[in-house]
Amino acid sequence: MKAFTTLTGVAAPLPMANVDTDKIIAARFLKTIARTGLGKNLFHAMRFNEDGSEKPDFVLNQEPYRKAEILIAFENFGCGSSREHAPWALLDFGIRCVIAPDFADIFHNNSSKNGILPIRLPREICEKLMEDAKMGGNARLTVDLERQVVVRPSGEEIPFEVDAFRKHCLLNGLDDIGQTLQHAPSIDEYEAKRRAEAPWLFA
After folding, report:
1. From residue 26, how far is each of 8, 18, 43, 96 by CA, in Å?
2. pTM of the model
3. What CATH number matches the domain at 6-172, 3.40.50.740, 3.40.50.150, 3.30.300.30, 3.20.19.10?
4. What CA–CA distance (Å, rounded) separates 150 from 161?
5. How many angstroms separate the CA atoms of 119 and 102, rounded?
6. pLDDT tens per residue, range 154-164
C-alpha cells in the first residue's frame, strides 16, 4: 500500500449527501477482485450517458477535476452495501483523500485499509472547502496527515482527528498484510520450531 504523508492536489466538489457505494461503483462492475481498472467506472451513472458519452456537467468530467486527488462531499458518504471495490475505484481514479461530515463505518474502514484518508469535518467547513475547490486548479488543498491539518489555498489550517492506529498504518503504507509481515521473524521462528517438533505436519 502506498504511504500517505502529505498530499497537495486538486479537490473536486461533490455537493451530495448519502452517496452510496452503488453510485461510487455499480454492482455490474464487481466482476473482478483486481484492485486496478475500476477507476474508469467510478460514478458511472453520474459520469456517462447510456451511449457511453460523458455528461459534461459532472465535476469529474471537467478540467481540472479529471485529475482530482481529493474529493469533498456531504453527509453519510459511502453508505449502502459493504463493497471494498468502492475505495478501489476511487483510488484507481486517483482519489487519495475524501473529506465529508461523516462516513458509513464500513466504507471508512475499507478506505483507510486501502490507502485512502477519510477526513471528517463539520458541514460548514466542507462547504468552505467546496468553495475553495470551485476555484479550480489554482486553488489546491494540502492534507498533512502527520500534523493532522487541511491547509486551504488562503493558508488557513483546519485541524482534523484521526485514529492513532489508522494514522500509523497510512503514514507507513501498511495494509493488513503489511502489518502481518512486520512480524515475519517471529512467524519464521514459530514455523521452524513447529517443523522440528512435528515434522509430519509439513510432509
Report:
1. 29, 15, 8, 20
2. 0.88
3. 3.20.19.10
4. 11
5. 8
6. 999 999 999 99
